[in-house]
Design goal:
By secondary structure, the chain is an alpha+beta fold. The chain is about 40% helix and about 20% strand. Strands 1-2-3 form a 3-stranded antiparallel sheet, covered by helices on one side.
């Protein structure tokens, strides 16, 4: 069991700070500003980066981000994925711990009550 506890502890120590976590997706859209003399009238348009978050019930929120905040938002979204992966790994470790504890707590005597 100490091996699983060590794995769990090491996993949690590698996580980024929780205050730097953001659930959502970043995407880039191209927009046309509508000015007749602008280059976007004949080219691909102006790139705009958005953060999109979907909530329970299907409501979606989108926030347009200035270019200066895009690297920060990318890092925070990546941190969220690291936390999510860690939650899955910790859950797996905890299931293994429960299995081992269940086996250790079984009554060795015959005729005793068994729980599964």
């Amino acid at each position: 069991m100490p091996d699983l506890l060590d794995r769990r502890r090491r996993l949690l120590q590698k996580l980024p700070p929780l205050e730097e976590v953001l659930r959502g997706s970043l995407f880039v859209r191209t927009l046309r500003c509508g000015k007749p003399g602008c280059r976007c009238a004949t080219s691909a348009g102006h790139p705009a980066t958005y953060l999109s978050v979907t909530f329970r019930g299907g409501r979606t929120e989108q926030i347009s981000l200035p270019a200066s905040l895009v690297p920060l938002a990318k890092r925070w979204v990546a941190n969220y994925l690291k936390w999510w992966e860690a939650v899955e790994k910790v859950s797996q470790i905890n299931r293994q711990l429960l299995r081992r504890r269940r086996v250790a707590e079984r009554s060795p005597r015959r005729g005793g009550r068994r729980y599964s």
